[in-house]
Specification:
The complex is a heterotrimer.
Chain A: H1 2-22, E1 28-32, H2 42-57, E2 62-65, H3 71-81, E3 86-90, H4 95-104, E4 109-113, E5 122-127, H5 129-143, E6 148-155, H6 158-174, E7 179-186, H7 195-207, E8 212-216, H8 221-231, E9 234-239, E10 250-256, H9 258-271, E11 277-281, E12 288-290, H10 302-317
Parallel strand pairs in A: 1-2, 1-3, 3-4, 4-5, 5-11, 6-7, 6-8, 8-9, 9-10
Antiparallel strand pairs in A: 10-12
Chain B: E1 8-17, E2 20-30, E3 35-40, H1 46-54, E4 61-66, E5 69-71, H2 76-81, E6 84-87, H3 99-104, H4 113-131, H5 146-159, E7 164-168, H6 176-191, E8 195-200, H7 203-209, E9 212-217, E10 220-226, H8 232-240, E11 258-268, E12 274-284, E13 288-292, H9 299-307, E14 314-319, E15 322-323, H10 332-337, E16 340-343, H11 347-351, H12 358-362, E17 373-374, E18 377-378, H13 380-393, H14 410-423, E19 428-432, H15 440-455, E20 459-463, H16 467-473, E21 476-481, E22 484-490, H17 496-503, H18 513-521
Chain C: H1 2-5, H2 16-41, H3 46-58, H4 61-86, H5 94-111, H6 117-146, H7 150-172, H8 195-198, H9 209-226, H10 228-238, H11 240-245, H12 250-277, H13 288-298, H14 303-326, H15 332-348, H16 350-371
Amino acid sequence: MFKQLKLAAVAATVVAAAGIANAAEFKPAIVFDMGGKFDKSFNEAAFNGAEEFKKGTGIDYMEFEVTQVSQREQALKRMAKKGASIIVAMGFAQASAVEKAAKANPDTKFTIIDMVVDLPNVQSIIFKEHEGSFLVGMAAALSSKTGKVGFVGGMDIPLIRKFALGYQEGAKYANSGTEVFQNMTGTTPAAWNDPTKGGELARSQFDRGADVVFAAAGGTGIGVYQAAKDSGKFAIGVDSNQNYMHPGTMLTSMTKRVDVAVKNAFATAKAGTWKPGISVLGLKEGGVGYAMDEHNKGVLSADVVAKIEKARADIIAGTLKVTDYMTK
Amino acid sequence: MTNRTPALELRRVNKWFGAVHANKDISLSVDRGTIHGIIGENGAGKSTLMSIVYGFYQADEGDILINGDICHIDNPQASIAAGIGMVHQHFMLVDTFTVLENIILGVEGGARLGEGLAKARTELARLEKEYSLDVDVDALVGDLPVGLRQRVEILKALYRGAEILILDEPTGVLTPQEADHLFRILNTLRDQGKTVILITHKLREIMAITDNVSVMRRGAMVAHVSTKDTDRERLAELMVGRTVLLQVEKPTAQVGDTLMQVTGLNFIDAEGVQRLKNINLEIKAGEILGVAGVSGNGQSELLEILAGTISPSSGNIIYKGEDITRSSKKNARDLRKIGLGHVPEDRHRSGLVLPFTANENTILGYQDSPDYNRGTTLDKASMIKACEDHIEKFDVRPPDPNLQASGFSGGNQQKLVLAREMEQNPDVLLVGQPTRGVDIGAIEFIHKQLIKMRDAGKAILVVSVEIDEVMSLSDRIAVMFDGYIVGELDAKDATETKLGLMMAGIADDADTDPAADKGAAE
Amino acid sequence: MSEKAVRFGTPAKVPAWVNLALIPLVNLLAAFVLSGIVIVIVGDNPFKALEVLIYGAFGYADAIGYTLYYTTNFIFTGLAVAIAFHCGLFNIGAEGQALMSGLGVALCALYLDFLPFWMVIPIAIFAAAFFGAVWAAVPGYLQAKRGSHIVITTIMFNFIAASIITYLLVEVLIAPGGQSPETREFAEITWLLFFHDFLPIPETPLNISFIFALFLSGGFYYFVWHTRWGYEIRVVGQNATAAKYAGISSARNIILAMFISGALAGFVGVNEILGVHHRLILDFTGGFGFVGIAVALMGRNHPVGIFLAALLFGALYQGGSELAFEMKSINREMVIVIQGLIILFSGALEHMFRPRIESFFKRQKSVQAAEA
């Protein structure tokens, strides 16, 4: 039995070695997290980035969608064994898996999004969501007639609280009398995809007087935006530019350029300029921002935009500090 | 009646269920205008045969001829169209419908109910008159007593134009008086030219009413005889395949101390119905106390309370001088430990765990006895040994302690339960329906065992709906009606008529008023 | 003399191997055929897929390690569901019970790690079983004494468990300075031994929990069929009126069976938290509790059957991820479809082929008997 196992292990190593030997060409890989690559949000943004890279270079990439906690480490190791040149791991939840896989494969490049893993062959990309949220918080407060704005979070985890805190600070900064209602959709991952509950939470906030609502809740947001449209209120999108969904209702979207991050990770790795370490993408780096396009042109007034732009410049300059929930 | 073609004829009918050959080469000829009995033990194939005639099953081989023509009956509709009506053992009636609605169910005739109802009403009035079947057609079926419901079933069949009426064990739920009434109805039907087929395992009924009788044993027809040319002993022998004693021989009872005394027992069930009303009983060593009554008059509840599986609402039970009514000893298992055995009325529902093997059932209720345990481990060897012992003493077949309980026939299952309870040598044994669904041969054996126990000085209480059984086993008989014990009499003084009247709530010594009330209502 | 060979009145018996091997295999085959059709529809080669699936599950040492690691979880939840089934209870809450067991493990591993390993590990294992057991015993109590339906309450308890764990991970137990809702890594002395720690095999999550699973399977067999407590649980499950008749308390046995059920489910926490992740994380139960229902059904509530069914599902999980790796047209949803078909055929449609196969064998037998 053990002999056979050993043989199999040897065989596997040989296969793996052959894989590496063949890896003259560039082989990028990406491991999506539980949400799946079509989650209309975080993972899908990453998928779009990878697709863009593929379109631009013609280089196909390996991918895997995690369905089990333990598959994360397994998938990362599999990718490494198959000779991936760079492996992008999506999401904070993959941190410990990346740590183990990176230690076991010191020659493979890893990039993790939304989390820091401090190893010599790992690049960690995190975003200053609080900065982007601060700006849309301002947009909300400045567009509100009632002086009350709402926030609907997805699953109640620190990352979402980071959004919430930035949003709140932005709203208060724009108008210190603004009242901010805050609700989380749930405490399980189901909260990422519960539009019905999202709609209910939004409506209850409208009933309490809010007239702008920001959803940082993945698929749940769809219900929030619909509720805003039905009640004639404003909504703010998240992660991707979601302005197109309900033109006139969508005030703006707080963008988090996960797609750019993924594409850049692939591109730099190909070009040989990929570097390990932590890169924090904020307003300054263009990693977060707020979306302006033809869909929300008249919705967000020029006056408001001017104020937001001023704050943005101040934040970039460092004269205006936004609290990061993680480090407070 | 000049036509000599048989109303129903079966030619070499065969039916298999998997490997079981349920009907073997059955040929049968039923003359028009007669009452034809089909008798046999449980599982002899009677019901299967009649289900083939009625179209529930199809025969694998053989022909069915009605009035001399071969008929293809592959569903009940075809059978009804051929003029066959069936009254099942379990009535197929809707309780919340009126008699009229039940009768036209399935033959409403047209989209508008009103017309059909009016037409049916006239037709029924004619039928009732012709066959002296008196039923209030506007009564709700749920409100009718069992005997009347059966009449509704008969009317239903006649309304559909039945010329041949099959009755499957029709007297199982009736008092002797109701049964007699049924027989009068059947006689009228015969006199009006209908053909009646009566399926039963009761010899008394065959002798009382049929013209001809066919005997089935193990799936085959073993005899066709004219009723007047035979007798009960001869039929019993044909059914079982050997000579049987129908009457148990028993010496005079040596009555001893009162082991169990019940005073003022009342029981109100979960639905708020009072099932037991002021029951007083004494169970004495060395005698068999029989409790007679039509099913559903409180006997089951009485048995369960005495056995400790349900608690009474009020009253007292003194067992060997100790009040066990509401003490911590009330649990059935604890009562077993102090010598109270219990054979339940329904072996499938409570006496056995059917998916368990015979040896696992051997320890049911005695599972924590040191005989069957070694420390924390169940002692399989001793379980199997005990089971083999029971199998041998009670002649259980097949003699396999590892066979699932569901694999034994009804009589053998009953023997397994009886053996379990009797072999623990209890001081008081409570037995519900000792021979329900048990073959004649096994009945004889079970009765002998009970009497042997009595003669060993044990106290036995037997609850049975079979009046013959109560009369032949008991030394003393208590009759229950509507939750009361309406009378208690010495077995020597009991006659079928006397008991039958008491069972119907018409007590001759009318010392209990509710019975008198009921009697007046009748 | 066919009379003797086939006793009249007894149902004909089907050879045991038909019941235990042939029928499950036919069901499995049907599921594979249908999955194959689905794969053809999405434009891939079903035989290649099957090959990848089997190779991915058993083809090399890593794969076997992962397969057995999943198998371990399924054995625990399968046994948990099975003991409840023996008592006539449908425990849908193995998922929540496993989650709570993770909490038990984490509390011990986080706060008792000053103890030597030979103390802290047994304590953590006990805590896992105990937390799971209590989480199951409460619905058991509600069923036994209050008549609240166990299916409803165990489902509700799954949600409650998930909420509690999330709350604790977000607010209380989160690693200091950590971003994601998980505890700090446990001290190394609390970790269970991996197989690769003492065997010359590649690194996989397979740990000594697998050995616990085998021991518990044996214990399960002994308890259910060879002790009076197991006997009483089975009587209650098969025939509650007979239990009453025998003086066996249904309420007590329902609570006991659920307690044991929860304790068995709790070993998922031992395998996952103490064995693999070494920190309490969200969602580590990954649906194992629900698959346990299918495992118990397929395994006929018998430890040997449960082991085989667990191995099948372990292979499907591992081979399924291999499929997702190797064949681009087969994404994870497709893998779930295949797993679903297998559950459908071996669980829900169990009786589709059974009557035909059984009657074929019965007929065969009666023909033989007649010829003899």
